[in-house]
Amino acid sequence: MLANVNLEINLGGLVMKNPVTVASGTFGYGEDYDKYFDISRLGALTTKSLTLKPRAGNKPPRLVETPAGMLNAIGLQNVGLDEYLAKKLPFLREKGVPIIANIYGYSPEEYAELAARLENAGAADAIEANLSCPNVHDARIARGAAFVAQDADKVALYTRTIRSATRLPLFVKLTPNVMNICEPALAAEQAGANAISLINTLLGMAIDPETRQPRLANIVGGLSGPAIRPVALKMVWDAARVLKVPVIGMGGICEAADAIQFFLAGATAVAVGSMSFRQPDAAARVIDGIEAYMKRHNVENIAGLVKGMRI
Ligand SMILES: Cc1cc2nc3c(=O)[nH]c(=O)nc-3n(C[C@H](O)[C@H](O)[C@H](O)COP(=O)(O)O)c2cc1C
């Protein structure tokens, strides 16, 4: 049993005191969760996808419980860049937690503008480009971002454009709704991404048999929670074997034992997502549990777990 262990990581240039962040869209901008635990305990806080202008999101119902998970079709409801800078950022900076600012744009140039403005305002320590939101159906983006991450050439174009606009560590978040995750992952890496975030939600739907109506107003939504964990784990394993840059693993992480599986499969960091709705201090419990696991298993350095699956 070790007395001290080292949880610090370098995630594509972002130094984190532990390898745990939260998944974009499941933690807002942190204020509500700070009532349940000190959010500065997080290795980094990933904010809800930000767009240049505020978005009201989709019509309700936007959330449905499913076996071991949930479907959401929030549609990128967010306060927009200006309000984030004026109202949300000061609290996060006061807390001193590193910020991974997740961004969403309607074109490569919009992503680039968001990244540049966040960097210039000192409003992010890393950028996570959400190239994989399944819930936006504006006519403007009928060829929506779900499709960006489904097309390796587009992933390369978007990543290159954002890369040229910022010196911040750039993480690219991909969709699991593809045949081979390695193709968009390698495209992002070659275009300058410093880490790859895996996975966003899996497309799904549910119908009420009594009314024969879809349970989501949007009909289709994104499936998250423990139901998707095995899929996420396999995609992390696939991608980590071909990538040189680190992977941020997410998908159904509820407790430390789940996070450990992601490290063993090849993730350098993990994000706690939907579980924060059920248990607001889930991420803090995951941090504590990882530390306890390392002490129990004589793992001095968290890097010692990465790709540590025994075959
Ligand atoms: C309600 C909800 C909203 C989400 N919003 C975003 C978002 O704005 N941007 C994004 O990149 N991912 C978003 N996601 C996806 C999560 O960040 C995460 O990739 C996914 O839920 C898998 O992790 P989990 O199973 O632990 O929730 C959202 C997920 C949920 C459940």
Secondary-structure topology with pairs:
Layout: E1 9-11, E2 14-16, E3 20-22, E4 45-46, E5 63-66, E6 69-72, H1 80-95, E7 99-103, H2 108-120, E8 126-130, H3 145-148, H4 152-163, E9 170-173, H5 182-190, E10 195-198, E11 202-205, E12 207-208, E13 213-214, E14 220-224, H6 229-242, E15 247-250, H7 256-265, E16 269-272, H8 275-278, H9 282-296
Parallel strand pairs: 3-16, 4-7, 7-8, 8-9, 9-10, 10-15, 15-16
Antiparallel strand pairs: 1-2, 5-6, 6-14, 11-14, 12-13
Helix pairs in contact: 2-4, 4-5, 6-7, 7-9
The protein binds flavin mononucleotide (FMN).
Residues 23-26, 48-49, 72, 74, 76, 102, 130, 133, 173, 200-201, 224-225, 228, 250-253, 273-274 line the site of flavin mononucleotide (FMN).
